[in-house]
Design a protein that fits this description.
about 260 residues; mainly alpha
Length: about 260
């Protein structure tokens, strides 16, 4: 009989132990990668913190001979935070100075996550509204306007971003003058500036644009409308009238004079 005629049993390979081992290896790899990233992240944070502390010490030394050291430190710190985009600089400030620094950085970088760090709830809302408005305009997406809490600012954002043009206006049966009014009012709402309405040749339409179609007149985007700017005597085209590092609305909200030192009377 040929040896090949003898029956023999073929062994079956069990994949279960192999799968368990392979799974264990993958988990170990992921754990190592995770630990490596965590350590690197912590090291990066430590380095950033040390650099911030170094810069803060330099600012303290620079402002030592300033007439108003606190104001000098606040301005220099806010400037560094804006230049570096690092909110850690703001952490060295206290109370309203911290909130003002974070607000400025959040609006500058257009990041709502930065605004969320603001302690004062009203300032936080104003910061978030400004950032969401800027994001909506930048993306030309009216849906993003819905995140704005202030009703007038939200409606103004929608009005500015709705796709109203001279072409589709005419298709809706509007006359050219009416279409021009809609286009100009759209631009005015985007810029929050009543001066844009003066582009209209018809004086009556220009006034209607300012009085009825423009929802917010705040060309410097400091969240003080023209009526409030007149009330406090601030510059409607300059967010920080007295250039002290706090915008006009921040000072008014905190009870300080937005045109110079001291508190509001």
């Amino acid at each position: 009989m040929n040896i090949n005629d003898y029956p023999f049993e073929q062994k079956q390979i069990s994949w279960k132990p192999v799968a368990i081992v392979a799974g264990g290896v993958l988990i170990a790899v992921f754990l190592v990668i995770g630990a490596f990233r965590l350590i690197n992240g912590r090291n990066e944070t430590v380095l950033q913190t040390k650099e911030v502390e170094k810069q803060r010490a330099a600012i303290e030394q620079t402002c030592e001979s300033a007439t108003n050291k606190e104001e000098c430190v606040q301005q220099q710190t806010q400037k560094l935070a804006s230049q570096t985009g690092n909110v850690l600089f703001c952490d060295g400030l206290t109370d309203k100075s911290y909130d003002a620094c974070v607000w400025e950085l959040g609006v500058d970088k257009k990041e709502t996550v930065i605004c969320e760090k603001i302690i004062n709830e009203e300032w936080k809302r104003l910061c978030l509204d400004s950032v969401n408005y800027a994001l909506a305009v930048s993306a030309q997406d009216a849906k993003l306007c819905d995140k704005i809490q202030n009703e007038n600012k939200r409606l103004g954002c929608h009005n500015g971003l709705e796709p109203i043009t001279a072409e589709n206006c005419a298709s809706l049966g509007k006359d050219p003058a009416q279409c021009e009014l809609l286009v100009v009012s759209k631009e005015a709402n985007l810029k929050q500036d009543s001066r844009v309405c003066d582009k209209l040749a018809n004086v009556g339409q220009a006034e209607y644009c300012k009085e009825e179609l423009l929802l917010v007149n705040d060309p410097d985007f400091d969240d003080l409308d023209d009526t409030q700017e007149k009330l406090y005597g601030t510059d409607p085209y300059k967010a920080d009238t007295d250039t002290d590092g706090y915008n006009d609305n921040q000072e008014v909200s905190a009870g300080y004079n937005p045109k110079g030192p001291g508190k509001l009377e």
